[in-house]
Design brief:
Distance between the termini: 118 Å
Strand content: 5-15%
Structural class: alpha+beta
Largest sheet: 4 strands, antiparallel
Order of helices and strands: HEEEEHHHHHHHHHEEEHEEHHHHH
Number of strands: 9
Radius of gyration: 34 Å
Shape: elongated
Length: 406
């Protein structure tokens, strides 16, 4: 007959271990010490086997029967319960080893293999370092949305709202990678949408007034700092590429016969190769710096470390030295300056300007058919833009002449 709870409770130790049968192969195994264990006898592959179901009283009679029934269903479906238990134990151990930091480092290595830009990788690593102290050693499958939020809230409390927002996105990518590789069930960061303070967008400082552009160009010409920095500062407004793209420019990327700079996809924000027509003025600036850095990898190497590109903040510091700090102008602002004045001129199509800025059309259909990328128009536009910069500089110099004479 099947056991009842009182019989299980009153089962005492004897001189030798003994069994007290319940039903369906379930029995209580009692040691001389009085310890009681639930066991299940079953047959698999024509062999008699035994499976442990837990220790009494941690596992009650009712709970042991539930485990017995679940195991028998497993047998009926053609699965060996011992093998399943071993696999679950192995998976649990792997889950314990699959910490947030381990998964994040795997994901980061994947980003490196995909050829993401160095500056992007450095920012991702910098962001992940904020998460490691609290989340690094936690199994990623056990991390809750609230745990991630606590990390982000600490950053927000210091007023770094944009950093918190970017970290949430980076953590989300790590969680999605864990889901894809079978180490987590879901991206818990998805539950944090709307939980963080939305930072007010701050546009990078840029001069977009034609007269002030001329004054800026005149100031740049008068810069008396390091020759390589001066060349980069002179070239930046003519090409209006992103500052990181200019800093990482390599001599091997320039085709002086065809008058074009080919920036490889891995250096571009949009991960597409970008081509920059070189005006006569741009070529002249490159000719000026060639005797200084030709033979080296980078056109604008770091001063004192020729195997590395110019430092990230060099051009902004140079602009500050010229009196254009304090939110007046940034190295990135040359892009807004060119975009504004080129659009206002009415001479060029918006598509040609956007392509030259390295922006990708959001409309996939338009992108497929825009294979020409407006190249002939861009060649004419870049030369006209350099001519306009020269004209504005000359006008500024002329206007300032009476004041200098006085």
């Amino acid at each position: 007959m099947a056991l009842n709870a009182l019989q299980v409770q009153n089962a005492k130790g004897r001189d030798r271990p003994y069994k007290v049968a319940d039903s369906g192969g379930l029995y209580l195994f009692v040691q001389p010490s009085g310890q009681r264990y639930w066991r299940l006898a079953y047959r698999w592959d024509r062999k008699q086997r035994t499976m442990a179901l837990g220790v009494y009283p941690d596992v009650s009679l009712a709970a042991a029967r539930e485990k017995r029934d679940a195991t028998r269903k497993m047998l009926a479906s053609g699965r060996d319960p011992v093998a399943v238990a071993r696999e679950e134990e192995r998976a649990a151990k792997l889950a314990e080893q699959a910490t947030f930091k381990v998964i994040a480092q795997e994901w980061f290595s994947k980003c490196e293999r995909e050829g993401r830009a160095d500056i992007t990788l450095k920012k991702q690593q910098w962001l992940l370092d904020f998460a490691y102290p609290k989340l690094g050693d936690r199994p990623i499958a056990r991390i809750t949305a609230h745990e991630v939020y606590e990390v982000l809230k600490t950053i927000e409390a210091k007023g770094h709202h944009e950093t918190a927002r970017r970290l949430r996105g980076t953590c989300g990518q790590v969680f999605r990678y864990a889901v894809a590789t079978g180490r987590s069930e879901r991206d818990v960061c998805a539950d944090l949408r709307g939980a963080l303070v939305t930072p007010k967008v701050k546009h990078l400082a840029a001069i977009t007034n034609a007269r002030e552009v001329g004054e800026l160009m005149e100031a740049i010409d008068a810069f008396d700092g390091y020759r390589v920095t001066h060349a980069a500062l002179r070239l930046a407004p003519h090409l209006f590429v992103r500052p990181g793209e200019l800093r990482h420019a390599e001599w091997a990327e320039f085709d002086f016969k065809e008058r074009v700079w080919a920036i490889p996809a891995e250096k571009m924000k949009m991960r597409r190769p970008h081509f920059v027509p070189l005006s006569r003025q741009a070529l002249a600036i490159l000719d000026d710096v060639r005797p200084v850095t030709a033979g080296q990898r980078y056109v604008f190497p770091c001063q004192g470390k020729r195997d590395r590109p110019m430092c990230e903040n060099t051009l902004n510091l140079a602009l500050q030295r010229l009196g254009y700090g304090g939110g007046r102008m940034t190295a990135h602002g040359f892009r807004a300056m060119a975009s504004t004045l080129l659009n206002e001129s009415g001479r060029w199509t918006a598509d040609a300007i956007e392509r030259q800025l390295g922006h990708v059309d959001a409309n996939a259909v338009r992108r497929v058919y825009a294979r020409g990328e407006y190249w002939p128009e861009r060649i004419r536009m870049m030369q006209a833009w350099s001519d306009e910069l020269n004209r504005l500089r000359a006008a500024a110099s002329f206007a300032a002449a009476p004041a200098r004479a006085a």
